[in-house]
Design a protein that fits this description.
This protein is α/β, with parallel strands linked by helices. Helix content is 52%, strand content 12%.
């Protein structure tokens, strides 16, 4: 039940590798002028199983050397005896802290360490965040529950045992060395009343008491009356034995410590009293609706990454023509086609009745500069107001019109960004391997099934955001798709480029990838990470040519280097495969595009659209569908406007510019694509004749 396995990544197995690097770490602490180093003793390093009578000398010697190293730099160790690390043997054999026998094992640990480190350690904490036993019982006390078991009874039973153990530790510490100072430790976070109503004030007081009762016992030596009364109301009995209360009373701690993560509010109104998603104290969830940009990147990837970061995310349907009709009700047809689709999806979802309008938010991204996408968020807010949803918050991810919407409860964190980055890397990988193999599958649905299988297998990796595990899975994915049996036929390759949403969204482009496959072609769609590189590269150009921010330029250069470093193993694996192409550098794309037009074209997809077409042509993908919203003038310039020159430089270029708009005829689009395919197939037949 608790064993490690091959399918999961366990960062704690290596973590920061303090065991081997503590000397250099402590030297850095000394250089920084730190005077205290708070650390924890790993119980299983002293007693590997936890219930032995004799300790592990090697483990004892390690901590002795570590404490001496601290003294060398005049750093005072503040040592936690146990920090969420109950030995697994004690969990499996005794049920961890639900068993009173744990008190004896803990006492044995304390006797050993207090005597061994006398004179080296003066300040001790008995348990890290002792109240976490109520909120994360396995982490806090090694507790797991049987079906039908009274979980609250088990938690408070275990809490009593930990409080007894804390008192015993304090007793031993003072007996071994009267200079010892022993403290307790709380996961703190003050609760405030949401309003001045007496009911809300009382709710906040009760929420605080639930946590404070632990340190009341440890510092005052007795269970507070309010806690005993509440336990009585809940039918919970503390396993108090003879001598327990005296032990608690006589051996209180010397000081109180706490970690303070956040403040909270309490209300008796269930529509208001909602905990923030992602918080370990959370009791409810808030739904966050995302428009669908790219199903192969979002479904099972980006949505999983955001859910793992604490947000109850719903990615809206991939192919939803009704969203266009809804969007047209609230967004003028002259506005950007992607805005009409995205806003239509969100309003349609809110009108569906599937979501609690008091517990739902919508997310929208927008770019900056001269593009009409700069106005997506104001357009969305107007649409929400007009549709009767003014109370729905907008989570805005914006490079323009900053400050238009606040993002209550939504924060970008480093772990979230790592998860999202891994999700997009997988999305780009699947885009390459699935689109390359599906047109040639020997059995209909075979490649989609393989894709679905891998989505399930990598879910844990998306949740933990490990790049090491990504590289491991990435190589396996490439290998399996590289070796899957395919029909040995040659098909026309068709590149798909254009405005980012029209390029990736099946709703916007009438599912062009499947359409091309149905027409007998293989679709080649550039990576979405390339667009991120394009946005970063522009910051460098603006500094070098327009005197813009040097800080932005440096950050952009750093970000591009990070992306290149992260993508390097995937690039190598793709190049070493039989079927797949490597990843093009953004610098190479910019150099090639610069031969056609100015790299100062930053509005819309800018020079990047031209660069993508050149990348395809250089890879012998001569047939290209160049898609843009009908009213997007910048994309017409860098798309349609460069076709003549591209055909001059690349005589085999067969490029079909296709407009997408609510009023454009689907039949007309299909006819133009088929005309392009007819030319492509003719060229393919001529190649076959030449090769014969």
């Amino acid at each position: 039940m608790f064993a490690f396995d091959e399918e999961h990544f366990y960062p704690a197995q290596n973590a920061i590798d303090m065991y081997h690097r503590y000397k250099e770490d402590i030297a850095l602490f000394g250089e920084m002028g730190f005077k205290t180093y708070r650390l924890s003793i790993a119980w299983s390093r002293i007693f590997p199983l936890g219930d032995e009578t004799e300790p592990n000398e090697e483990g004892l010697k390690f901590y002795e050397d570590l404490f001496k190293e601290c003294r060398k730099y005049n750093i005072e160790p503040l040592v936690t005896i146990t920090h969420f690390d109950c030995p697994m043997h004690l969990v499996e054999k005794y049920g961890a802290w639900r068993s009173r026998e744990m008190v004896g094992f803990y006492e044995n640990l304390c006797n050993v360490i207090f005597n061994r480190y006398k004179g080296l350690v003066k300040y001790w904490l008995t348990f890290n965040e002792i109240n976490m036993i109520l909120h994360a019982p396995f982490m806090g006390a090694g507790l797991y529950f049987e079906e039908g078991e009274n979980k609250e009874q088990v938690k408070y039973q275990a809490a009593h045992h930990e409080l007894l153990a804390s008192a015993i530790a304090t007793k031993i510490a003072h007996e071994v060395d009267p200079e010892n100072q022993v403290g307790c430790m709380l996961a703190a976070g003050t609760n405030y009343a949401y309003t001045c109503k007496p009911e809300d004030v009382w709710a906040a007081r009760k929420a605080d008491r639930e946590n404070f009762f632990f340190i009341d016992v440890q510092s005052r030596g007795e269970y507070p009356a309010y806690a005993l009364k509440e336990l009585e109301r809940e039918g919970i009995e503390l396993p108090i034995e003879e001598g327990d209360l005296e032990l608690l009373k006589e051996h209180t701690v010397d000081f109180i410590s706490f970690s303070y993560y956040s403040s909270r509010v309490q209300s008796t109104d269930p529509a208001i009293n909602e905990k923030t998603a992602g918080n370990i104290f959370a009791s409810k969830t808030h739904t966050l609706l995302l428009p669908m940009l790219s199903p192969i990147h979002q479904s099972g990837l980006v949505d999983v990454a955001l859910k793992a970061s604490g947000y109850n995310v719903v990615c809206l349907p991939a192919d939803d023509r009704e969203a266009v009709n809804v969007g047209l009700k609230y967004v003028n047809n002259d506005a950007c086609y992607p805005a009409i689709i995205s806003i239509g999806q969100l309003v349609e979802a809110l009108e569906s009745g599937e979501y609690d309008l008091n517990h739902v938010s919508v997310m929208m991204t927008q770019t900056g500069g001269g593009c009409r996408a700069t106005n997506y968020i104001p357009l969305l807010r107007k649409a929400l107001n007009d549709a009767g949803f003014p109370q729905v918050p907008v989570v805005s991810v914006s490079m323009g019109n900053k400050g238009v919407e606040s993002n209550p409860g939504f924060k970008f964190t480093l772990p979230m960004l790592k998860r999202v980055a891994v999700a997009f890397l997988y999305g780009d990988l699947f885009e390459r391997v699935v689109y390359r193999t599906r047109p040639y599958e020997t059995e209909v649905g075979m490649i989609d099934a393989l894709h679905t299988k891998w989505l399930k297998q990598i879910e844990k990796n998306v949740r933990n955001g490990s790049l090491t595990l990504f590289n491991r899975n990435m190589k396996k994915i490439i290998k399996e798709f590289d070796e899957v049996p395919l029909n040995e036929v040659k098909k026309t390759k068709v590149g798909v480029v254009g405005e980012i949403l029209v390029k990736y969204s099946p709703t916007a482009n009438n599912d062009i990838v499947r359409l091309l496959e149905a027409e007998g072609a293989e679709a080649v769609v550039p990576d979405i990470v390339g667009f991120m590189n394009y946005s970063l590269y522009n910051q460098i150009w603006k500094y070098e040519n327009m005197g813009m921010s040097k800080k932005s330029k440096n950050l952009a250069q750093f970000a591009i280097r990070i992306i290149e470093y992260v993508e390097k193993p995937m690039d190598k694996a793709l190049k070493n495969s039989k079927r797949f192409e490597g990843i093009s550098s953004i610098h190479e794309l910019a150099e090639d595009a610069g031969k056609i037009l100015s790299i100062g074209n930053h509005t819309g997809e800018g020079w990047f659209l031209t660069g993508e077409m050149i990348e395809l042509l250089k890879s012998d993908v001569n047939n290209i569908v160049c898609m843009q919203p009908f009213g997007c003038l910048p994309n017409h310039v860098v798309g349609k406007g460069v076709i003549k020159e591209l055909r001059r430089q690349y005589p085999k270029a067969n490029i079909a510019p296709i407009d997408y708009d609510p009023g454009v005829s689907l039949v007309n689009q299909l006819n133009r694509i088929r005309l392009m395919m007819a030319t492509a197939n003719k060229m393919l037949d001529e190649e076959k004749i030449v090769h014969k």
